[in-house]
Specification:
The structure is a homodimer of 258-residue chains.
Chain A: E1 7-9, E2 15-26, E3 29-37, E4 43-45, E5 48-50, H1 56-63, H2 77-89, E6 97-102, E7 113-121, E8 135-142, H3 154-166, E9 182-184, H4 185-196, H5 202-213, E10 237-239, H6 249-257
Parallel strand pairs in A: 2-7
Antiparallel strand pairs in A: 2-3, 2-5, 3-4, 3-8, 6-7, 9-10
Chain A binds a DNA duplex (27 and 27 nucleotides) through helix 5.
Chain lengths: 258, 258
DNA sequence: ACAAAAGTGTTCTTTGTACACCCATGT
DNA sequence: ACATGGGTGTACAAAGAACACTTTTGT
């Protein structure tokens, strides 16, 4: 009902969307969150969707500094990415990293789309992906065996994101986002190697990461329950929320809720 | 006449623009190309403008693979940047580097704008900036003493671009775009230092750059006319068009014209 | 005791740079 | 001769990583 085209402009405009490549490490594999589209073009795709802008009057008011509407309004591109991720896939992320804008005229068969791509790291435990409004389903897919994608530049975007992650002057601290609330260094070492797709000496990485975890040690011996037990020294547990540089996904989720 | 708002959509859409930070080195200063806007908000700004998209029928046809219209159509975001730079400032550049997308709701008082920012290097000799349709004037401004800008995130964008240029993992070859058709290594050395805002040993930079210029030597002794004369060995002249990695602005201009 | 974790010290490589000193080539 | 350009060799510094080895701490 009422899909009237009520927003009219003197010049044609493209649709603006954000797409987000959410990576996680599980089962010794780098995985990415994909959604199965309900509408054409059907198939698998990166989660994402339209930048919600207000009508003329609203936008002018916001541009003048008035408070933005609470509903159906993305103040920033990053807001849009977070919202789409939440609505479409049920996932709230910490740090979002912008990859760039993609806008070739033939990138979407439905018409002219300009998309701003982001990537993020999460740990599965903190998210329960749930297909939202526009998605038939949501799935973690191994990046090594991606299904065919509904938009032909999504594979390229994922490629770019992986390059960004691997070839790096990327801060070690960013990889903390891949960890659960509590984790040990050996776990971090394994995860880091999988995410960057290379091997690195345990001790060398340890030296780089330890400073970040200095204040995140969980002293309580009972907390070690989740750590590997055995006839050996138990690993130190760290609390992601207290690690420097980590963007606690929990905190972000809480902030969003309030 | 007929500024009717003929393009209507079910959902509000932002305007999409590109902005370009064009840098050059002249008079021992890093300079940037700014235009003086004719329309509100008046004042100085980065050259740039609207992404020209077709109407629904046109875009669908292009998305299906049919050839894009010759007129008033930007196939890619980069095409848009080149066109705007040409139309608005009379400048054609070689390599364009995407900085990212900026789309906060309060970035433009006229309404909701999403801009994709690019930066480029040029040499003044190859361009005659000329105020185009939307510009009252065009000017090279020293980045050290920028005027106030009509859009408050343009200063931020310029800042980002300068950071990108200075804090390097930037390929040396890109700086060849700052040179004229023919240049000497000592000239390159000076230019490089100004652009990156640091000093570097003549000999060290020489080693990095020489491989790029191997096949660009101008043998003809008469070509040395433009080189500094004096009671000393004359410098070797190089031809930018034959240097590896340089994107000859002339070639791009020619391609555009055909 | 054993095994995994934690921690330390050393070496190696790479990369970029400075620096010193050569030769080349014009007026 | 001399001033500038071109070129080479060496040394140095920092960063990242490998490697070897020790110590810790539980069963």
């Amino acid at each position: 009902m009422m899909s009237d085209e009520r927003h009219c402009y003197a010049f044609a405009r493209p649709s603006v969307t954000t797409d987000i490549a959410v990576f996680t490490v599980d089962n010794a594999q780098l995985q990415i969150l994909l959604i199965e589209r309900k509408e054409a073009p059907t198939g698998w795709a990166l989660p994402g969707g339209f930048l919600q802008v207000g009508d003329r009057r609203t936008e002018l008011a916001v541009a003048r500094g008035e408070p933005p509407p609470k509903q159906n309004f993305d103040f920033s591109l990053e807001d849009c990415a977070r919202r789409e991720l939440r609505e479409e896939a049920g996932v709230s992320v910490g740090a979002l990293h912008q990859l760039g804008a993609f806008g070739d005229a033939n990138r979407d068969v439905r018409g002219r789309y300009v998309t701003v791509a982001y990537w993020a790291f999460v740990h599965k435990s903190q998210h329960r992906p749930k297909a939202g409004s526009d998605a038939k389903s949501v799935r973690w897919c191994q990046v090594s065996t991606l299904p065919g994608l509904a938009f032909h530049d999504h594979a390229y975007i994922i490629e770019q994101a992986r390059g960004s992650i691997a070839s790096q002057h990327l801060d070690t601290a960013l990889f903390l986002d891949l960890m659960p609330q509590r984790f040990t260094y050996p776990e971090f070492h394994r995860t880091y190697q999988i995410a960057t797709h290379r091997t690195i000496d345990r001790s060398s990485l340890h030296r780089r990461v330890l400073p970040l975890l200095r204040d995140a040690v969980i002293e309580d011996a009972r907390s070690h329950l989740a750590a590997p037990r055995g006839a050996h020294r138990p690993p130190t547990m760290y609390d992601k929320a207290r690690a420097v540089g980590a963007t606690a996904a929990g905190a972000v989720a809480a902030r969003t809720r309030s």
